[in-house]
Amino acid sequence: MNIFLVLLLLVTSLLACESPQPQAGSTAPARYSEPHRPQFHFSPDSMWMNDPNGMVFFDGEYHLFYQFYPDSTVWGPMHWGHAVSRDMVRWEHLPIALYPDSLGYIFSGSAVIDHRNTSGFGDGSTPPMVAIFTQHDIAGEQAGQTDYQTQSIAYSLDKGRTWTKYAANPVIPNPGIKDFRDPKVIWHDATGRWVMVLAAYDKAMFYTSPDLKTWAYASEFGIEGDKRLWECPDLFPMRAAGSDTIAWILITSIQQQGPNGGTATSYFVGDFDGNTFTANPSEQRWLDHGKDNYAMVTWSNVPDGRTLALGWMSNWQYAQVVPTMRWRSAMTLPRHLQLSGTSGGPILRSAPAREVENLRGHTLPLAAGEVENGMMNLAELASPLMEIQFQFSPEQSSARRFGLIWTNDEGDSLRLGFDRERNGWFVDRSQAGASDFSKEFAGIHLGPELDSAKLDLRIFLDWSSLEAFCEAGDVSFTEIFFPNEPMKHLAVFAEGGKAVWGPGSRWELKRIW
Ligand code: FRU
Hints:
single chain; mainly beta; six-stranded antiparallel β-sheet; 2 helices; 34 strands; 4% helix; binds beta-D-fructofuranose
């Protein structure tokens, strides 16, 4: 660790000590105007946040629990922070849901509504909300043990406001695997029991249970010879559009060597029979090609059956040193995942959940045009908060590289472009503002090479993040950046030829805080 990082960590922890504690129940604190503070993404009121946890819908509310350390802006003893939303867009902060105890910190996990009261935690009038999470015994870790991660449960009968931990925790003791965590539980209809998938070092393990309290090992799935660490898995069925076939998706986040470096969320499309997941292990795909979508998992109990997901908008390579002062990290926009057929087989397509349209303010047109070897201004931006829908002409855009570029008067620029030579999209944040906090930050991040491209885009720009859904969402990028002032200008660039585009749309987006 270099001296600069040490100093930065020291300054941020000093600032953290002086900061007020997170305020439960606050929806619009004035400090959500701080530089780089996300304006339409969820971020904690203050202090450190990582993975989304326990995402579950119940009685009109989408719950978001999250890895939270209330005493610092860097990672520490983990709690479950808590917020609720009626539309996954506007959030209300609630008090911390789960605190560390004698079994350890509260690591990542999931929550279910136990409609049949299989756990017996219910009181007959309301189904219990049951949280299933890892406990990380820091003393055990420091003593060099290997069995310091176990799985525990807790329940709530008042819409997640207060929680009772199960007296007989842990419900799954450690089988001798150091990294044994992040349980995601689903109800498996065909077998009429609960299924848990959890990350066990370099693979996923599956357990089953009649009652959420007693669990039996069922099977495991991994990639032979690949020793990268798995975290935060998810498992769910999905029907391809216009087909009766159900595919099962296994999501797993990978702690090293993601496609653009560092941490990234991957998935397999396969089958699950209630015990065993089968898929071709060599067909591991990436849910996002930006650097900042980790630990993405889905909501449980969504009323209309959509597969809705949320990810942590950062990367462990630099999450703890990004230049935000009172809080650290935000979540992605809620995403609607669907199966999309491609020549290379089915892939997960992601689009913003339709509720995101609630953010739209004024509609502003983007005129059609063309540019050859240069830049053409598209818009001066009164507000950098925007959604854009845009399409380049695949037949007429012959440039070697072309795309959209956001700039400000401080010399920062952010590019989302298409590279004809490799037939793929890319994001270039190499000059998008502050990056000296980590040598892993600045860079050009590449999407997959495509057989053919329609060159359509849907883009969401917040004060310090870009989410781009290219090719109807078959290729997405989530990227954070820290400009020295808001981006003020939007242009099209073309290098080595022409870029041609049709009329597009731009919406100013509203702040949620
Ligand atoms: C993923 C992760 C999880 C763990 C949690 C701890 O980002 O490392 O595996 O449960 O964070 O905060």
